[in-house]
Design a protein that fits this description.
heterodimer; A: 466 residues; 5-stranded parallel sheet; B: 216 residues; alpha/beta; 7-stranded mixed sheet; two-stranded antiparallel sheet; globular
Chain lengths: 466, 216
C-alpha cells in the first residue's frame, strides 16, 4: 500500500484585513490542481465510514474518486444523486463533526477535506455545465401532489427528492424570496446568494413550483392544502422565532435579534443602503450576545458594515462555544474580540432610548448541565459595564407557533417543536410530515436536509400505497 | 397622506398597476362580539381600518358611535362609508375646515362624560392619537383597544423588530397584535422605537426625490 499522504490541502482565503471590510466570500475554493491533489489522498477504504457520517448519505468515496480521475461530470452525477444542494453544503456543513470526523484519516488528524471537494465539484458544475443542463432522468409522473411548506434546506431537499420520484410538488414560502435561512440568515461572505439562487433554480428545474408570499398557518392553512388536492404535506418552516435574554433594557433602540439584523443585512441588502431601501444601524462598538455560528455571522457582518470594535459576549469559555471552530478562527483573524465567561445583566440606555452599554457579570464554570457542558454561574459582585452602541442578541431561535397553533391534530412538545417520528418525520396528523428545525429545534442545514430526505422517502411510499 | 419613500411611490400607482409582493392578512384579527355600545375612533388614514371593524361590530348588534378626525378637510375620506355602519358619526378637523374644530379626544371625552354607558373604545390612527384616546378613557375605566404600528420587517414573528411592551411584557406586534389594551401599552417605548430610522428615512426620501426629479 502506498504511504499515507497526510498533507491536507488548505483552501485559500481572502486576507483577513481585506475581507473584514467587504462582503465577498471569505473562502476562495480549490483550484483544479488543489482539488486533484486532495482527492488523490483518499485511500478509498472499503468500509467508507465517511458515508455513515453524512446525513444525506452521499457516495463520498465515489465522487472523490471521480475528481481524482478528472472525470468531473461523473463527480457531479454521483454528488447530486443524493444531494440537490451541494454548493450550499460544501460551504456550510460542519464536516468536522460529520463525514470528516468519521474519515479513517481523521485518526491521523488529516481527514480528507470532503467539504472543500464537494464545494469544488458544485462550483465546477455551475461554471462548466450550468445547473439546468444537468442530466436529469425524467421520472414517470405519479399524478400525486405534495405541498412543501418552507423553502429552506429541509423544504428544498424534500421537494427535490419528491420531484425526482415523479410527484408534482409545490413549495409555499412566506417571504418574497425562496431559500429561507440560506437567504436571510447566512451572510453573503460565507454563502454567496447567487449560489443559493442557482441551487434553488436547479430544484425548480426538476419541476418544483415555488409559491412565494404565502404564510401557511395565516394566509392558507395546512388543512386548506390537504383539501385542495395535495395528498401529502411536508412541513419545513424552520425554527424562526428569536429568543431574547428577557433582562431589563432589552427593548432599547439599537438592540437587534440576530434574525432581524441578519435579515436586514442579507435578505434586504441593508449593507447597500440607500441603493437598497432597507436600512440597518451601524454601531461603533457592537456587542453580540451568544457563541454559536449565528453570533459569529452577526459579529462579522457588523465589522464589515464599519463597526470599530465588535465583541462576542459569551457566558461560557471558548471550548464550550457551539460555533464551528473554523468560524471562530475566521472571526478572530478578522479582529472580533471575545469577552468570554461574561453574561449580560441589563442593558443601559440614554434619554433617547438608545443603548449605550451592557452591564455584565463575570461567570465561572460549575458542574456539567443537561447539555454536558459545564454550567456557567454568575460571580456575585463581579458586575462591570461594556460600552456599546449596538447589540445583537444571538441566543438561538425557537419554533414559530404559526403553523402548530393553526393546525388541528398536529401535536407539539413543550418546547413548541412538532412531534414527528425521529426517522421518517411522520407527524400526528394524517398525511403530514415534518423535518428540520421545526422538529429538532435550531440545528444545522445538513441535519434538516437529512430529515427531509427520510421524510420524502416515506411520503413517496405513502403516496404509492394510496 | 404620503409620508416617506414608500407611501409616495404607492401614491403614484394608477389603477391596474401592481406591486411585486403583498402578504396578508397577518397578525390576529380584531376581537368582535356584542359588547353593547362601542365608540370607534379613527385618525386620518385609519378610517380605512375602522370601517370594516365598525361594520362587524354593527352586525353583532352593537351600538356603534364613530369619531373620525383629520388635520384638514382635504385629508378626510370615507365619511359616508363610516356613517353607513355607525349609529352616530362625529367628524373633526384640527383646523375647523370641516365638521367640528378640534381633535378626536374632545368628542370622545364628552361621550364618556355624557352618562351614556360606553362598553368599549377602539381607537386606530397615529400613535400619538391612540395614546391620547387611551389617556382619555383611562379615568372612566372603559376598555380601549388600540392597533399599534411599530416598524416591522417580516410580519411573521421572525425578527422581533416590532416588539412593544404591554402590561410590562414584551409582545411582537406582528403576531401577538396589532390590537392591544391601550391602557397597558408603554407609549414612550413605542414612540422611541418608531424613531430609530428617522435619519435613514430622510436620506431615502431625499434620494428618491432626486431620482424622480431626473426621471423623464
Amino acid at each position: 500500500m502506498a504511504k499515507l499522504d497526510l498533507n491536507r490541502v488548505s483552501m485559500p482565503r481572502q486576507d483577513p484585513k481585506l475581507r473584514a471590510r467587504n462582503f465577498n466570500e471569505v473562502a476562495l475554493g480549490y483550484s483544479s490542481e488543489q482539488a486533484q491533489a486532495e482527492a488523490s489522498r483518499c485511500i478509498q477504504c472499503p468500509k467508507h465510514p465517511c458515508i455513515d457520517g453524512c446525513p444525506v448519505e452521499i457516495d463520498i468515496p465515489g465522487f472523490i474518486k471521480a475528481v481524482g480521475d478528472g472525470d468531473m461530470p461523473e463527480a457531479v452525477r454521483i454528488l447530486k444523486d443524493k444531494n440537490s444542494l451541494p454548493g450550499i453544503c460544501g460551504r456550510v456543513c460542519p464536516q468536522e463533526t460529520q463525514c470528516e470526523e468519521t474519515c479513517v484519516l481523521a485518526k491521523k488528524e488529516a481527514p480528507i477535506a470532503i467539504g472543500r471537494l464537494e464545494r469544488y465539484v458544485a462550483d465546477w458544475e455551475r461554471a462548466n455545465m450550468g445547473l439546468i443542463n444537468s442530466p436529469v432522468i425524467q421520472p414517470t409522473p405519479t399524478g400525486k401532489r405534495v405541498a412543501v411548506v418552507g423553502s429552506g434546506p429541509a423544504g428544498l431537499t424534500a421537494a427535490a427528492d419528491l420531484a425526482k420520484l415523479g410527484h408534482s410538488v409545490t413549495i409555499f414560502e412566506a417571504l418574497h424570496v425562496a431559500g429561507g435561512v440560506l437567504m436571510y440568515g447566512i451572510p453573503e461572505f460565507r454563502l454567496p446568494k447567487d449560489i443559493v439562487q442557482a441551487e434553488i433554480d436547479y430544484v425548480a428545474s426538476l419541476g418544483v413550483e415555488i409559491e412565494l408570499d404565502t404564510v401557511v398557518g395565516k394566509t392558507i392553512s395546512v388543512d386548506d392544502l390537504l383539501n385542495s388536492g395535495y395528498q401529502a404535506v411536508f412541513l419545513g418552516p424552520g425554527a424562526g422565532a428569536p429568543m431574547f435574554l428577557n433582562i431589563p433594557g432589552e427593548n432599547l433602540n439599537g438592540i437587534y435579534s440576530a434574525n432581524e439584523f441578519l435579515t436586514r443585512v442579507n435578505l434586504m441588502k441593508a449593507y447597500k443602503f440607500p441603493e437598497y431601501d432597507t436600512p440597518v444601524k451601524i454601531g461603533h462598538r457592537v456587542g453580540v450576545i451568544g457563541g454559536g455560528n449565528v453570533a459569529m455571522d452577526a459579529a462579522r457582518c457588523a465589522l464589515r458594515l464599519g463597526a470599530e470594535e465588535v465583541y462576542i459576549i459569551y457566558r461560557r469559555s471558548e471550548v464550550e462555544m457551539p460555533a464551528r471552530r473554523e468560524e471562530v478562527e475566521n472571526a478572530k483573524d478578522e479582529g472580533i474580540q471575545f469577552k468570554l465567561l461574561t453574561t449580560p445583566k441589563r442593558f443601559i440606555g440614554n434619554d433617547q432610548n438608545w443603548v449605550v452599554g451592557v452591564e455584565c457579570y463575570k461567570m465561572e464554570l460549575g458542574e456539567p448541565d443537561a447539555s454536558g457542558r459545564r454550567r456557567p454561574i454568575a460571580i456575585p459582585g463581579s458586575e462591570f459595564i461594556i460600552k456599546v452602541d449596538m447589540v445583537v442578541v444571538a441566543l438561538g431561535t425557537r419554533p414559530n407557533p404559526i403553523i402548530p397553533s393553526t393546525t388541528e391534530g398536529l401535536e407539539t412538545t413543550k418546547w413548541g417543536t412538532i412531534v414527528a417520528d425521529e426517522v421518517i418525520g411522520k407527524t400526528t396528523k394524517p398525511a403530514v410530515w415534518a423535518g428540520g428545525d421545526i422538529v429538532t429545534g435550531a440545528a444545522t442545514v445538513i441535519s434538516a436536509m437529512g430529515a427531509a430526505k427520510h421524510a420524502a422517502a416515506d411520503i413517496d411510499k405513502y403516496l404509492r400505497a394510496t | 397622506m404620503e409620508a416617506g419613500t414608500t407611501t409616495h411611490r404607492l401614491a403614484l400607482l394608477e389603477a391596474g398597476d401592481s406591486i411585486a409582493d403583498v402578504i396578508g392578512p397577518l397578525g390576529l384579527p380584531t376581537h368582535i362580539e356584542n359588547f353593547g355600545t362601542v365608540v370607534c375612533v379613527a385618525g386620518g388614514f385609519a378610517v380605512a381600518t375602522i370601517v370594516p371593524i365598525a361594520e362587524a361590530l354593527k352586525m353583532k348588534g352593537n351600538k356603534v358611535i364613530s369619531i373620525m378626525g383629520a388635520r384638514s378637510k382635504n385629508l378626510l375620506f370615507w365619511e359616508d362609508e363610516l356613517g353607513s355602519v355607525s349609529d352616530q358619526l362625529i367628524v373633526t378637523t384640527d383646523d375647523g375646515s370641516y365638521g367640528r374644530k378640534g381633535v378626536v379626544t374632545e368628542p370622545l371625552k364628552e361621550l364618556l362624560e355624557s352618562g351614556e354607558k360606553i362598553d368599549r373604545v377602539i381607537a386606530i390612527g397615529p400613535s400619538i392619537m391612540m395614546k391620547f384616546c387611551a389617556k382619555t378613557t383611562e379615568p372612566f375605566g372603559v376598555k380601549t383597544i388600540v392597533s399599534l404600528n411599530p416598524i416591522m420587517v417580516d410580519g411573521t414573528g421572525m425578527c422581533g423588530c416590532c416588539r412593544v411592551s404591554v402590561g410590562g411584557a414584551t409582545k411582537f406586534t406582528c403576531v401577538d397584535g396589532p390590537d392591544f389594551d391601550g391602557h397597558k401599552v408603554d407609549w414612550d417605548l413605542l414612540f422611541a422605537r418608531q424613531r430609530i430610522y428617522l435619519d435613514e428615512e430622510k436620506l431615502s426620501f431625499e434620494r428618491w426625490q432626486r431620482q424622480s426629479d431626473i426621471r423623464p
